[in-house]
Here is the input.
Amino acid sequence: MEREKLQELIKQMTLEEKASLCSGADFWHTESVDRLGIPAMMVSDGPHGLRKQDQEADHLGMNDSIKAVCFPAGCGTAASFNRELITRMGETLGEECQAEGVGVILGPAVNIKRSPLCGRNFEYYSEDPLVASEMAGALIKGVQSKNVGTSIKHFLANNQETRRMSSSSEVDERTLREIYMAAFEGAVSKQKPWTVMCSYNKINGTYAAEHKEALTDILRGEWGFDGFVVSDWGAVNNRVPDLEAGLDLEMPSSGGINDKLIVDAVKDGNLDEAVLDRAVERILNIVYRFEENRDKTAVFDRDRDHEMAKKVAEETIVLLKNEDNLLPLSEKEDIAFIGKYARKPRYQGGGSSHINSHKVTGAWDCVKDWGNITFAEGYADDADVVDEAMIAEAVANASKAKAAVIFAGLPDAFESEGFDRAHMGMPGCQNELIERVAAVQPNTIVVLHNGSPVEMPWADKVKGIVEAYLGGQAVGAATVDILFGKVNPSAKLPESFPYKLEDNPSYLYYLGEGDRVEYREGVFVGYRYYDTKKMEVRFPFGFGLSYTSYEYSNLKVSADHIKDTDVLEVSVDVTNTGGMAGKEVVQLYVSDVESTVIRPVKELKGFEKVELAPGETKTVTFTLDKRAFAYWNTQLHDWHVETGEFRILIGKSSRDIQLEAAVTVESTVKVPVHYTMDTTFGDLMKDEKAMQIIAPMMQLNIGGQQNESDAAAEAISREMMEAMMKYMPIRGILSFAGGKVTLEQLTGLLDQLNAAQ
Here is the structure.
């Protein structure tokens, strides 16, 4: 509906009607105004499937939703690094929403994986904001191409489940901008989601729902967001201040309680009615955008979409280890399938995103009729207890086979919405099973079903490790195709796998103290920390093996010197040097060679997935702008590039850099400088204008004449004197110049220095 018509419609509404539109009618519907023909709109949980509840509604999935299709969760879709594939997945979800009359699907969830312990990591994409933002943007693009809205969530700094409705994420400005906001920024500014969902938590002491800087100044003012902001379910704390801050829609219904607060605030003169009108207009704009673009011909073809889920899953499975090229397996050899997840895979997480799948394909379903595959349960999923009979059966089967494939991972009791993991380990019964099978079968492969990293004490005792993540309802079929070589694995890890939890940079501070959670690791999240510290990890960010091999060559940059207002074009050739068609994820990292601020040794600034036939070469290109070289300057409150040399790194992972080139970037922005008595001479020496002014003072004999024959010369070296001078503040002249400089002279010098800026 055109804006003029919307505004005219709002003028016809009573104050009470307008207030009612700012909260839900129930759990899943916006309010209608029958008198004016204003329809309700249904929203539904997502983001990897449609969780539409027909009857009794609840937020955490305790009541059944309609039969639907479960696609791979965010942990897996991010591993695909394939924007086009995830856009097609989004198109499928959008079609399903149209068929079911759902106007907005609640996702994608892009919160950064700060720690492996976050119970909701399975929904989230990555420890890296570029990956999170780009993959979320791809999903948004696909869903919204079908005239169905998305709700990117949870804004902002929502990285744990513990005390999530009351905790305050204490994050410095630079870290917020470079890591936690950046995950949202690109997706919001480029793909324009219809809605943004604010989180439960506080940010530096202010609840997200009433954080005006985040919801209005940044989200709308800087990023150009033009939809409505909706609360996470139950995230409203103070309705009128929330509305003023930019929270438009409260979900679910407050039963009229908060609507009355809005009405009373307007009547009492404590709330400008224009603020209410603005929120109503934003909400109705989206309601009518969906209503006027309903596709009555849309069909929810569950079997067709199951096949799409399988296709997506094929590119979300990461091959982590393949010693002696044991994989792919032969379909004709005797193989032992072991583990409950082979028969009944764990393919999604628990909580509000849980899909009532219309069918589930386990790996055992795909091979049970082959005649050469045996199955043993191995462990029970409902209790972490070693079952000797189950293990004995598994060991017996494995010892007779050519190879054993163990399907393991994390049960729902270990990771789910609502609570955080207590540790990074797998169930002890599963670890014991893997150890015992590997002891009798050298050709053991472990397939993992989990939403984030796990410790692998058995990793050196098995020949193959396959990370299947939570791959959706068709994960079993996709895994079998990977294991037996019908599909070439092409996924890469969107997160680092440390050896142990204690290696994680947030380990000491995660969960915080009471309701205060300090993000003391700052920008050093994931590989930014591990790589900068040169710390060994089990598997690095961006890592993933293939059944073929790739060679990188001919790296070119469009210039070796640019200004920060220019763009740099980068190209590299990739060749499939193996014997099987495959897809490779080419990763571009940027490293600031010398910086005055503390920065990670490298940061991902581009990635592209390219498909190659055996022997085929393709050129992959990247375009880098200012942001690729910039950090967030807290003095400018803006992105800033320091003049200097940067390295362009092309890699297969953050630890496997194949090629590099250098470029000098010249800053066009001068950071304002104000010199004080505490400014050091070393800082002055970096400023050419300042050096000209202080040159006479530098000739003074600071500290007196040094006698080379004096025994003190052995204690006071030239290097020591230079260092003392470098780190001496200007005021030190008064103490060490022997009265040759007065306070008035020094004050005048400061005035000259600042006037020259």
Q: What stands out?
A: The chain has a mean pLDDT of 95. The chain has four domains: 3-291, 302-532, 550-666, 681-755. The CA atoms of residues 260 and 311 lie 49 Å apart. The first helix runs from residue 3 to 11.
